Amino acid sequence: PWIVRYDHPLFDAVREITHRGMVIVTSDKALICGTVTSADIAQQFVSLSEPFLFLEQIENHLRALLRSVRLGTERLKAMVDPRDEARQKRLKSVDDLTFGETWRAFDNKDIWEKLGLPLDRKTLRDRLETVNEIRNSVMHFHPDGISDEERQILRLTREMLQII
Predict the structure, then answer these.
(1) What's the pTM?
(2) How far apart are CA 35 and CA 81, in angstroms?
(3) What strand order describes the sheet that includes 32-37?
(4) Alpha-carbon distance 96 to 126, whole Å?
């Protein structure tokens, strides 16, 4: 098996791990500290990529719901910060809205009534605000990643949106 020091960059060792199935990790004194396997790499990949996938699915569901009410361009532009004239000019469809603009649209009473969703508006708004906070951590690569509780919030929000 391939042997690497504990301070060897994991990314550099990934090819060897996938080729050999594992590597042995040693200390700076050449003592065996443990192993890293292909399964470890796969688990880490899932752990890192899952929040991105959940967020994409949540955003796609929200945009599909907004598309269903056929908001005109002027109505969409009203969701953008009026001081951001460049974004206002570029905005052509729901797909051009940021995630924050998209979820805040659900707090608009007129849009909410057109959607006719079987949910409490404040509850959904609060949940989407939490998702937005998690999204900011994920997209800005917070060094600690997200917690299991935050991962569960994303998972449950995605499932709820799939149902409605």
Answers:
(1) 0.79
(2) 51
(3) 2-5, 22-26, 32-37
(4) 23
